Amino acid sequence: MSCGHPHDIDCRKVLDAVFLYLDGECDGTQQNLIRSHLDECSPCLREFGVEHEVKLLVARKCGGDRAPDSLRANLLARLRAARVEADATSDLSAE
Protein backbone atom coordinates (compact mmCIF):
# COMPACT_ATOMS: atom_id res chain seq x y z
CA MET A 1 0.00 0.00 0.00
CA SER A 2 1.19 3.47 -0.74
CA CYS A 3 -0.66 6.74 -0.36
CA GLY A 4 1.28 8.23 -3.26
CA HIS A 5 3.17 10.80 -1.18
CA PRO A 6 6.85 10.64 -0.26
CA HIS A 7 7.64 9.79 3.37
CA ASP A 8 10.77 9.04 5.38
CA ILE A 9 9.48 5.48 5.73
CA ASP A 10 7.37 3.63 3.15
CA CYS A 11 3.67 3.00 3.93
CA ARG A 12 4.09 -0.75 3.49
CA LYS A 13 6.93 -0.83 6.03
CA VAL A 14 4.86 1.18 8.51
CA LEU A 15 1.90 -1.17 8.23
CA ASP A 16 4.14 -4.24 8.44
CA ALA A 17 5.60 -2.89 11.70
CA VAL A 18 2.40 -1.51 13.24
CA PHE A 19 1.96 -4.40 15.69
CA LEU A 20 5.57 -4.08 16.81
CA TYR A 21 4.89 -0.37 17.31
CA LEU A 22 1.70 -1.07 19.28
CA ASP A 23 3.51 -3.59 21.48
CA GLY A 24 6.37 -1.17 22.15
CA GLU A 25 8.82 -3.57 20.49
CA CYS A 26 10.39 -1.00 18.13
CA ASP A 27 13.62 0.76 18.87
CA GLY A 28 13.41 4.51 19.50
CA THR A 29 14.37 5.51 15.96
CA GLN A 30 11.85 3.17 14.32
CA GLN A 31 9.15 4.24 16.80
CA ASN A 32 9.74 7.93 15.97
CA LEU A 33 9.67 7.26 12.21
CA ILE A 34 6.41 5.32 12.48
CA ARG A 35 4.78 7.93 14.72
CA SER A 36 5.86 10.72 12.37
CA HIS A 37 4.54 8.79 9.36
CA LEU A 38 1.17 8.15 11.03
CA ASP A 39 0.91 11.86 11.87
CA GLU A 40 1.18 12.83 8.19
CA CYS A 41 -0.38 9.87 6.33
CA SER A 42 -4.13 9.53 6.77
CA PRO A 43 -4.48 6.17 4.90
CA CYS A 44 -1.92 4.57 7.21
CA LEU A 45 -3.48 6.23 10.24
CA ARG A 46 -6.86 4.73 9.31
CA GLU A 47 -5.26 1.28 8.90
CA PHE A 48 -3.39 1.76 12.18
CA GLY A 49 -6.67 2.61 13.90
CA VAL A 50 -8.31 -0.58 12.65
CA GLU A 51 -5.37 -2.73 13.70
CA HIS A 52 -5.18 -0.96 17.07
CA GLU A 53 -8.86 -1.73 17.72
CA VAL A 54 -8.36 -5.38 16.74
CA LYS A 55 -5.43 -5.62 19.13
CA LEU A 56 -7.50 -4.09 21.97
CA LEU A 57 -10.37 -6.49 21.27
CA VAL A 58 -8.09 -9.52 21.31
CA ALA A 59 -6.46 -8.30 24.54
CA ARG A 60 -9.86 -7.89 26.21
CA LYS A 61 -11.18 -11.27 25.07
CA CYS A 62 -8.01 -13.23 25.82
CA GLY A 63 -7.75 -11.91 29.37
CA GLY A 64 -4.11 -10.93 28.98
CA ASP A 65 -2.90 -14.39 27.96
CA ARG A 66 0.17 -14.23 25.76
CA ALA A 67 0.19 -16.35 22.61
CA PRO A 68 3.20 -18.64 22.16
CA ASP A 69 6.00 -17.10 20.10
CA SER A 70 5.57 -19.78 17.41
CA LEU A 71 1.89 -18.86 16.98
CA ARG A 72 2.74 -15.17 16.83
CA ALA A 73 5.41 -15.79 14.18
CA ASN A 74 3.02 -17.96 12.16
CA LEU A 75 0.25 -15.33 12.26
CA LEU A 76 2.64 -12.54 11.25
CA ALA A 77 3.91 -14.63 8.33
CA ARG A 78 0.34 -15.32 7.18
CA LEU A 79 -0.64 -11.65 7.49
CA ARG A 80 2.39 -10.62 5.42
CA ALA A 81 1.58 -13.26 2.79
CA ALA A 82 -2.03 -12.08 2.63
CA ARG A 83 -0.86 -8.49 2.23
CA VAL A 84 1.52 -9.47 -0.59
CA GLU A 85 -1.28 -11.41 -2.28
CA ALA A 86 -3.70 -8.48 -1.90
CA ASP A 87 -1.09 -6.08 -3.29
CA ALA A 88 -0.42 -8.39 -6.26
CA THR A 89 -4.15 -8.64 -6.97
CA SER A 90 -4.44 -4.86 -6.70
CA ASP A 91 -1.49 -4.39 -9.07
CA LEU A 92 -3.06 -6.76 -11.62
CA SER A 93 -6.41 -5.01 -11.52
CA ALA A 94 -4.71 -1.64 -12.07
CA GLU A 95 -3.21 -2.83 -15.36
TrEMBL record:
It comes from the Bacteria. It holds the Pfam family zf-HC2. Residues 11-44 form the Putative zinc-finger domain. This is Mycothiol system anti-sigma-R factor.
